[in-house]
Amino acid sequence: MSAINTFVAMWRFLLTLGPSAMVILLLNKGILDQRPDIVDEPHRVRSIHIEDLRDVYDFVVIGGGSAGCVLASRLSENPEWSVLLLEAGGDEPLLIDLPQLYPVFQRSPWDWKYLTEPSDRYCLAMEDQRCFWPRGKVLGGCSSINAMMYIRGNRRDYDHWSGLGNPGWEYGNILHYFRKAEDMRVPGYEHNPYHGHGGPISVERYRFPSPLLNIFMRAAHHLGLVHRDGDFNGHSQTGFAPPHGTLRDGLRCSANKGYLRRSWQRPNLDIVLKAFAERLIIDPQSRRAQGVIFEHGLLKHQALARREVILAAGALASPQLLMVSGVGPREQLEPLGIPVIQHLPGVGGNLQDHISTSGAIYTIQSGLNRPLSFIVPEMMNEEAVEEFLERRESFFYAMPVSEVMGFVSTKYQDPRLDWPDVQLFMGSYGYGADGGMVGRRGAAITLENYADTFEPVLYQDSFVIAPLVMRPRSRGYLQIKSADAKVHPLIHANYYDDPHDMAVMVEGLKMAHRLTQTPVMQSLNATMNIYEWRNCPEVEYLSDAFWECLARFYSQTIYHPVGTCKMAPASDPAGVVDPRLRVRGIRNLRVIDASIMPTIPTGNTNAPTLMVAERGADMIKEDWRHYRDGGWG
């Protein structure tokens, strides 16, 4: 029976692909013809001609993602400094601006397409039992392909960083950088001390909510869980509210749009797109970073730095580039024939991510003539294209994956601390809502599993509540398998290595289920998709063992890997950079991106990455005013 279901699912998937592709083509052409605000031709970043590369720059920034865009923009504010930004991808395509289409760019040419190593403890429903890890291969990096949720984390996260021996990273000091990056446009926040105005990244509410948003909030209210002021980035974090997003006029505001489009024409800033960094140039005698070897147009080039080389390639590529350049664990480098310039055992370790369980699908019956949730084939049509192009509204502005967000403390966390250990996404569609075209493909769920568990609820009115473990105790690591930077490293995610993480996840799933038992949800006959029980028929339905089964089968990254170039004091042997983000033992080399985070923040990681880059840019400015002779202090 399973084989027949799989065959049917595959053919239905192929048959629905054609009409959706036609809508995408209509949308793209319509934007070119009718939406100059999205085309934004005068401000689009243009790469320099490679023959115009300067002999030497003051600063070479590797990686044009969230952090790299900030660094290139901020460092080039000094007209006396020359700055080069190298980005392996190209400019953002037009459709990337549309919030609803963000999953389309996973497993696309704008994605690095990383995969974790197979496991028998998580991602069991996924192809080859591997978790798929999208990473942005485009100017703006992950800020260009993410779900745009603007969450800063918890003040205790940053006080904890400082307490680990990283002075200056406490919340009272870094709040300034969150505010500096922000242009808060949500009404009612004009004089809020936690928010900034006029910064590069605009913050708004998501447009085009479904009717479920109010129902989700009523369920949270019944349990006494509504956030007191609706702002996760303000005085407190605990509770449920619609999240804010990095949006400008309802469309994506990536780091590229926010930072680079207003600075790339400066005469002291050069940008090379489609430039793949292969290796850092580090003098083995002086241990000084001198530049980078990169590939562009099938040819090798080098870019030299007079002052600093700055790695901003992200939590996977930054440690890999360090290792292939001779900086990292000796036991990984020597077997691959990489000369060890600096033995740093912490490079590639301390890997953390927010694991979620995305399979908790609930069907509902509204009794109305229209669904309450988003059924993609009914929404993604020519009428929606017309509404988007002509009236600047429609489904393409929506963010169904998390119309309401919640932060809660389980029984393992003291609620008085206001430091929640679970985040929940309440989404207005499930895996059956799009026929598997995007959701199934993005999560890499096998056709067989999809046919068995989600095909029976295909296109039914439904929603999902996905919990995330906020501060996992488990730690993973990266392992390079080649001296060639083009060969992806092995990613040992090690989700649920520490049993505490699974215990927290089970409590998160039980909290999600309690929300579905509230009167407003029961009036809609909210019912768990019982077909998911087929994964573990031997366990009791809705028992802790059932929730654990769900977590192990439908494990999904929320795209937040951090920690692989850990910031730490000299006393910590696992540290890679010091509190001023300088690589240990190597002069004139810094890492400034999510990889430096010693522990993962409580919430989405893009806003914290922007903060790290803003603070890193200020550190560089401070250091080079003080050390004018080019010394490292």
From TrEMBL:
Its cofactor is FAD. Residues 314-328 form the Glucose-methanol-choline oxidoreductase N-terminal domain. SUPFAM superfamilies: FAD-linked reductases, C-terminal domain, FAD/NAD(P)-binding domain. PANTHER family: GLUCOSE-METHANOL-CHOLINE GMC OXIDOREDUCTASE, GLUCOSE-METHANOL-CHOLINE OXIDOREDUCTASE N-TERMINAL DOMAIN-CONTAINING PROTEIN. It comes from the Eukaryota. It comes from Drosophila kikkawai. The keyword Flavoprotein applies. One of its GO terms (molecular function) is flavin adenine dinucleotide binding. FAD binds at residue 138. It holds the Pfam family GMC_oxred_N. This is Glucose dehydrogenase [FAD, quinone]. The gene is LOC108079185. Keywords: FAD, Flavoprotein.
